[in-house]
Design brief:
This protein is α+β, with helices and mostly antiparallel strands. The chain folds into four domains: 283 residues, FAD/NAD(P)-binding domain, CATH 3.50.50; 104 residues, no CATH class; 149 residues, Galactose-binding domain-like (Jelly Rolls), CATH 2.60.120.260; 31 residues, no CATH class. The protein is 22% helix and 24% strand. It has 14 helices and 27 strands. Strands 21, 22, 23, 24, 25, 26 and 27 form a seven-stranded antiparallel β-sheet that branches. The N and C termini lie far apart (58 Å). 50% of the residues are buried.
Length: 657
């Protein structure tokens, strides 16, 4: 007889899996007023970014920084909110603070119920829909039967969807299946990317011995020819470990996960032993292990089959999708399944993408159960396309897109399988995402409820590239890169079409002629959808601060909410990392210098200005201010101070009744 106590729960959206995708999905749905339940099978949130694994969150910023006021690829929305919180509130770079922050975010939402240590293990079906999910929490000997309208699988391994009979793929497609040039062979196989265990070490003021267990892997110097470690300081990487200590892609990364973990321990400690005791790195003698991961950082397992399978061509050609809900830009990043057992192969092959690309809602809706959605590394994509979408910041924006779509579906009583066929609902989803400071390639603010679109913008001062009217451009970032208006016209006349490998017009002419460089790993939006410009008001530094920006209407309007989007330096990398060298490329331990710190929100009342709100110490990008309805002809943002910049910057102002 089972010792598990039975419980029955009800919600509107059930999210299984508490990594970046699941957290952002659940937060998005809950903040839109939908009763949401988040089941996480671990004791902390964060998945591969949690203190259990400690992988830093990367995404469309790619391998290097973008360009100020030209290439701002860092993801917005919820994942930006989380990154900014961590950068400001976690200067010590504690991995446990990531766990705590995500927990804090979820606990703060009244519409969100968080259940840690709770794994979805089964489902109950009603025809072609999931009716209930069965979850177990062994730590309290409880079993839960959870009813919901929509079920979202963010588990990575796809446990919820598999229990519901959703179709999925495992392994690599053949070249002939989708015509992908980067597919490894004519026919597919069951191999995947492998897993990694990271470690952390600290340098001491005296030699620190390490005696290796007898079962560690033995390595030779030639094994590291393509997997080098540095010789001194932060180049060593001993403070963080090595992502390339990878293994398990030739096995089943789900069924063989325990074996993979054991072998990864042997590999990781073998690498450590080689550097410490067998290499010529003298400085390594003073380093000692401080933490070693025991939960494999898994890269790949199942991928669901959805209404659309994202392919290499979709990403490389940045194909337009009418149902776009997220964007990506990380390179197509494939690894040899053998990992360290293939020392003669590079640990990764990163194929630069010409442009940012959109991810469609249909790749997040099951081709099986009609009320099943998914977000994260298990979305509907080929192995090659997945090699770009799998990184956690991209998973996070997919999660926010899916959570927003789920909320709209609940409110309209529409089954997810029908969402993408409803252009009106897709438009609502996209506009809500933009309102929440997400970015979609080529889609701008067309929110009929945004009263700011009918106003005129004025400012106390402005720069030539930062006119006040820019806050009404409908886009909250610059993604034109090196494209100029003349360059775009020339490319269009030449039939510009991005393609992987070789040179297009821009690579061969504009980049090299105009800039004398060849920044192959900077990715920006396609020329027909980049909308060149700074897309922000920038006050004149010579005029100093305070500075003000004003929206004015011809006729009085009733306002009860104003949304402000501030500059947060989205051309830079920003993520919690234990790698010192990577951290040094960021602004960490304090707010981003471009961000407005102190400001006042005012309305015109009877010919005078009345203050509605004063904010001090801001470091966030998106700030929404709600207040009792006021009727006015003008609203003004008075910037009193920034977090370091010598002038004020505001990217967008929205106003709602």
């Amino acid at each position: 007889m089972s010792r598990l106590s039975e419980h029955k729960l009800e919600c509107e959206v059930l999210v299984a899996g508490g990594g970046p995708a699941g957290v952002c999905c659940a937060l998005a749905a809950a903040r839109l007023g939908v009763r949401t339940l988040l089941c996480q099978d671990r004791h902390v949130l964060g998945g591969n970014a949690s203190s259990e694994v400690r992988m830093h969150i990367v995404g469309a910023t790619g391998l290097r920084e973008g360009l100020p006021l030209q290439v701002e690829n860092r993801e917005g929305g919820l994942i930006e909110e989380i990154r900014l919180e961590l950068a400001t509130r976690n200067p010590q770079r504690s991995p446990s603070m990531m766990d705590l922050l995500l927990y804090e975010k979820c606990r703060a939402e009244p519409n969100l119920t968080l259940m840690l240590n709770t794994a979805v293990v089964a489902v109950e079906m009603a025809g072609d829909r999931i009716e209930r999910a069965i979850a177990e929490r062994q730590s309290t000997e409880d079993r839960f039967s959870i009813g919901a309208k929509i079920f979202v699988d963010c588990t990575g391994d796809g446990r919820l969807g598999v229990e519901a009979g959703a179709p999925f793929r495992h392994g690599r497609e053949g070249r002939s299946e989708h015509g992908e040039s980067l597919a490894v062979a004519a026919t597919g196989d069951g191999r995947t990317l492998g897993s990694t265990l990271l470690f952390q070490a600290r340098k001491h003021d005296r030699p620190m011995p390490f005696v290796a267990p007898p079962w560690v892997r033995k390595f030779k110097p030639e094994d590291f020819r393509l997997r080098p470690f540095g010789k001194r300081g932060s180049d060593l990487g001993l403070e963080y470990g090595y992502w390339w200590a990878e293994w398990g892609g030739c096995l089943d990364t789900i069924k063989d996960n325990e074996h993979i973990r054991d072998e990864l321990l042997a590999i990781t400690l073998g690498v450590w032993n080689h550097i410490k005791n067998e290499s010529d790195v003298v400085e390594a003698s003073h380093w000692a292990l401080e933490w070693l991961g025991f939960l494999p950082g898994k890269r790949e397992s199942r991928r669901f089959v959805g209404q659309h399978v994202l392919t290499e061509q979709d990403a490389v050609e940045s194909r337009e999708f009418p149902d776009a809900i997220a964007f990506g830009g990380w390179p197509i990043d494939t690894h040899p399944p053998e990992g360290v057992d293939a020392p003669g192969e590079p640990p990764c092959n990163q194929h630069h993408l010409p442009c940012l690309y959109n991810i469609p809602l249909r790749s997040c809706i099951s081709a099986g159960p009609r009320n099943l959605m998914f977000a994260g590394r298990n979305i509907s994509a080929t192995h090659i396309a997945f090699a770009s979408t799998r990184v956690m910041a991209t998973c996070a924006v997919i999660g926010q897109g899916v959570g927003t779509a789920a909320a709209v579906a609940v409110r309209e009583n529409v089954v997810p399988a029908e969402l993408a066929t409803r252009a009106d609902l897709v438009h609502r989803i996209q506009q809500r995402l933009l309102r929440d400071d997400c970015y979609l390639v080529g889609i701008r603010n067309a929110d009929a409820q945004d009263l700011a679109r009918g106003a005129a913008a004025h400012a106390s001062s402005e720069q030539a590239e930062g006119r006040a009217a820019n806050v009404l451009s409908g886009q909250t970032r610059s993604v034109h890169g090196y494209w100029t208006e003349a360059g775009i016209r020339a490319a269009a006349a030449a039939g510009w079409k991005p393609r992987l490998g070789g040179e297009n017009l821009w690579d061969s002419v504009l980049r090299k002629v105009e800039h004398g460089g060849d920044p192959e790993d900077i990715t920006f939006a396609p020329p027909d959808r980049c909308f060149p410009g700074t897309h922000r008001w920038m006050s004149d530094p010579a005029a100093g601060l305070p500075a003000w920006l004003e929206l004015r209407w011809n006729e009085p309007v009733a306002l009860s909410e104003v949304i402000l989007i501030f500059d947060t330096g989205q051309h830079r990398h920003l993520t919690l990392t234990q790698a010192d060298g990577y951290r040094d490329r960021m602004v960490w331990g304090r707010p981003q210098p471009e961000t407005v710190r102190d400001y006042a929100l005012e309305v015109e009342d009877g010919g005078a200005w009345r203050t509605l709100h004063v904010e001090q110490g801001n470091y966030q990008r998106r700030r929404a201010h709600r207040f009792d309805p006021v009727t006015t002809r003008a609203v003004r943002m008075r910037v009193l101070a920034t977090n370091g910049l010598d002038h004020a910057r505001i990217l967008e102002v929205r106003a709602y009744a």
